[in-house]
Design goal:
Length: 107
């Protein structure tokens, strides 16, 4: 490559001969976060924090065995991480379920 073609290549790239490419890049000062509207209209806290079965048991005030054998069959909201995966609960769903059960007259 000749010096003239090398100089032309540098000019096409926008970099001057003495600058390092990373030093001469200009990034916008704006927030690099999400720029699209949220898909969930209730916000990010609609489900609450994910909980393990032990944390749900502590929240309800019982054992993990009781959660699994008594409350899951009664409709305690949960999901599995796979066909045989661990159970995942979400705090807001569990609290809503408890409140609904209490209004109906018990757990």
């Amino acid at each position: 490559m000749t010096n003239d073609s090398h100089a032309e290549e540098i000019r096409k790239s926008g970099f001057e001969s003495g600058e390092k490419p990373l030093d001469s890049l200009s990034f916008s000062p704006g927030d690099p976060g999400q720029r699209y509207p949220r898909q969930n209209p209730q916000g990010t806290d609609a489900l609450g924090d994910p909980l393990t079965i032990r944390e749900v048991a502590r929240l309800i005030g019982c054992s993990p065995w009781t959660v699994r054998h008594r409350y899951l069959p009664k409709g305690l909201p949960h999901m599995r991480s796979g066909r045989l995966g661990k159970l995942i609960f979400y705090r807001a769903q569990v609290v809503r379920w408890i409140l609904q059960r209490q209004q109906k007259g018990g757990m």
